[in-house]
Design goal:
Number of domains: 1
Protein name: MOB kinase activator 2
CATH architecture: Up-down Bundle
Pfam families: Mob1_phocein
Organism: Albula glossodonta (roundjaw bonefish)
CATH topology: Butyryl-CoA Dehydrogenase, subunit A, domain 3
Keywords: Metal-binding, Zinc
InterPro entries: MOB_kinase_act_fam, MOB_kinase_act_sf
Largest sheet: 2 strands, antiparallel
Strand order of the largest sheet: 1-2
CATH class: Mainly Alpha
Helix content: 55-70%
CATH superfamily: MOB kinase activator
Length: 156
């Protein structure tokens, strides 16, 4: 079970990082001075001292993706006791990246004809997170309408 959760985290990380990279020309410190998601929630990075830091969306994404890559590559972390907490944190950061893409860049995604791929990835991601209780409903709440529509569509 631990191994499959870890491998899934790696796969989701790679796919979401690829989407973020593909949209990097649209997501700049000029276009996205803050990492904003649905409902105009602003995602802040927490530094080494535990202080919340507001930063641009590309910087937030860079911080989170670097953090996740470091964790996933650390053989001391997986599998160990307490890895569940780290796995939940990884999936929360990945959700933030997806939420920002939908909130701030969906028009760009559509222009690039990437929306079917993003929607499928998102449904797979949400379904996986629900199956293994990796996200709180309070985290996904602002996108619940989108989640309901996409999950219903993909079931048919």
């Amino acid at each position: 079970m631990v191994e499959s959760l870890f491998l899934s985290a790696v796969a989701f990380f790679k796919h979401i990082n690829l989407f973020s990279s593909a949209l990097s020309e649209f997501c700049t410190s000029g276009t996205c001075p803050a990492a904003v998601g649905p409902g105009d929630v602003t995602y802040c990075w927490t530094d080494e001292q535990g202080k919340k830091v507001k930063c641009s969306a590309p910087l937030y994404t860079d911080f989170t993706m670097s953090y996740i890559q470091e964790l996933l590559g650390d053989e001391e972390v997986f599998p160990t006791k307490g890895f569940e907490f780290l796995l939940q944190r990884i999936f929360l950061y990945l959700f933030h990246a997806l939420a920002h893409l939908y909130w701030a860049h969906f028009r760009d995604v559509v222009r690039l004809d990437m929306h079917p791929h993003l929607n499928t990835l998102f449904v797979h991601f949400i379904t996986f997170c629900r199956e293994f209780q990796l996200l709180e409903s309070s985290d996904t709440g602002p996108l619940e309408d989108l989640i309901s529509i996409l999950c219903q569509y993909h079931r048919t």
